[in-house]
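To start, an entry.
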Amino acid sequence: MAQDVWGFRREKYIPDGGPDGGDGGDGGHVYFRGQEGLNTLSEFRFNRLFRAKNGQPGSGQNKRGKSAQHLTVEIPLGTKVYDLETDELIGEMIKHEQIMLVAKGGFHGLGNTRFKSSTNRAPRKTTPGSLGEVREIGLEMSVMADIGFARYAKCG
């Protein structure tokens, strides 16, 4: 959740400068990426919380805050991803380097420059950023076999 800025322009020969508070940055998303070399979910046994960073706050002179980097978590191929609250299947990792959005980051807050108009030249209003998604995710790994055996019934 990025913060917004409530600021006004100040210069030497401009006594009553207008608003110049910048918007905040967006929060980061959380992605899952399929990796070929992984074959177990044991890493997730102890590390259960994955959280992307918040965006940076905006600043004066209409400077927008920096958006946060996205968080990418690598999971093995053949893993099904479920939303535990709704028991909905979000998706399944089938291909190497396949990317799946799991949780969206928050939207940036708006600085006071966004609220200026012809009648309100010095707005003292800002909006905070929205929170990102919080989800409980279940992972179910299906083991893929490389070789299968077949034989005739009752033949030894």
In short: The beta strands are 30-35, 71-76, 79-83, 88-92, 99-103, 137-141. Residues 1-156 form a domain with the Spo0b-associated Gtp-binding Protein; Chain: A, fold (CATH 2.70.210.12). The first strand starts at residue 30 and ends at 35.
